[in-house]
Amino acid sequence: MDIMKLKNQQFGEFEFDETIVINFEDGLLGFEEFKKFVLITKDNDLFYWLTSIDEPELVFPIFPIQLIEENFPDFNGDEPFGIVRLDKDPLKISINLKAPVYLNQENNVGKQRIIDNDNYQVDYKLFTEN
């Protein structure tokens, strides 16, 4: 077991075990050169943070899609997450349901897929006014 260290502006310096590194063979859309990520969670935080090991300032907030869309297609049983677009106005925070990130945390593999279905939006609003 090797302990690795990363440092970025968002989380400062943190340590993690290399056994939790998630490998994206094809990278993420627009960031294909980055293949290794670590999933960071903070207590009481709504989002998970997918953080690049090669470029620690590259951090994607992600959210489990099945919490908002129970019947969302899975991929070989891997859990779908949507990349979140943050905004100071909570009503403008959106999640990408069109190109989910699938994570298999048992074998540490991630993959991004485009869902060919018009029901899933690129900018689905995560919060709405009551």
Explain this structure.
There is one protein chain. The protein has 130 residues and is mainly β. The protein has a single domain, classed as BH3618-like (Roll), CATH 2.30.290.10. It has no helices and ten strands. It has a seven-stranded mixed beta barrel. A two-stranded antiparallel ribbon has the order 1-2. A hairpin with an 8-residue loop joins β7 and β8. It is globular, with a radius of gyration of 15 Å. The relative contact order is 0.18. The model has no long low-confidence stretch (mean pLDDT 93).
CATH T-level topology: BH3618-like
Strand order of the largest sheet: 3-4-5-6-7-8-9
CATH superfamily, by name, is BH3618-like
- Cα-atom Rg, whole angstroms? 15 Å
Key structural traits:
130 residues, mainly beta, BH3618-like, 7-stranded mixed barrel, two-stranded antiparallel ribbon, 0% helix, 42% strand
